[in-house]
Amino acid sequence: MPTEKRARQRENREKLLAARARVERIERLKRRGIVLAVILIIVAIFAWLTNRDTGDPEPSATVATVATVATTLPSQTRGPVDYAGFRAQTTACEGTQPAERVEMTFEAPADQALSGSVQATLQTSCGSIELALDADAAPESVNSFVFLAREGYFDGTACHRLVPGFVLQCGDPGATGGGDPGYVVPDEFPADGFLYDTGVIAMANAGPGTTGSQFFLVIVDGSLLPPLFSVLGTFTVSDGTLAALAQVPLGLSPGGEQSGPLETIYLDSVVVEE
Q1: Is pTM beyond 0.85 here?
Q2: Backbone phi, then psi, for 178, in 5-degree steps?
Q3: What structural domains does the chain harbor?
Q4: Is pLDDT of 38 > 80?
Q5: What separation in angstroms does the CA of 89 have from each of 121, 214, 245, 247, 264?
Q6: Where are the alpha helices (DSSP H) in the chain?
Q7: Alpha-carbon distances of 227 from 16, 57, 131, 202, 235, rounded to whole Å
Q8: What average pLDDT does the segment 197-202 reach?
Q9: Are the CB atoms for 47 and 255 separated by under 8 Å?
Q10: Parallel, antiparallel, or unpaired: how do β-strands 157-158 and 266-272 relate?
């Protein structure tokens, strides 16, 4: 057989083998992509179910939630499980660590004689957050929040949960996700169809009849939360504070959610305008 013909045949075989190899690589990548997507969905569903058990507000099982998990999945660092663990960490946003919280418990909140809009300020490690509390819409919830703030209950506590593109959760003195002030606040749920969009501050709970001192700030529109969390009012926060919060590194919470701050976000104080 002429040498030129053999060379062409050999070249054709090499091209065919190369093409098959490319197809096989593409198929392998597709299979890996499908497996990864399944894993991410399982992780998102697991986090959702876990949050249902703890009563934390839950991110909806949407593409956005899966994308959030996808960006954080490689990290398996575990975040603190209690206040002592948060105290042992660096303070977030290059802030100064405040004095330790003072342990407090109460049988019931004292009447604060509130009405209308009540102004307050959260002083955090990453900046200040201005609150407009609606005492007419949720009188029991706002009264309790203001009572605890004036008693200094929140001062020096750690915000134990930060879900990127969803919520910042604070108000648990033990920073375990299960703390309360010693009493239960009556539920004051909003009407069906209420939207927990950016700027809403509401009370966390573990189901009906379990609202205590924990609250969360919604930092995304379209959270799709059901109207099962008493709404305190609204908040405003600077872009700088939001940008600083977005830079806080996160590890796994005790429930497996990627929401445990690895640098501690403190509530230095909660000041109510008199």
Answers
A1: no
A2: -125, 10
A3: 77-272 (2.40.100.10)
A4: no
A5: 25, 22, 16, 16, 6
A6: 3-54, 63-72, 83-87, 139-151, 239-246
A7: 60, 11, 20, 10, 18
A8: 96
A9: yes
A10: antiparallel
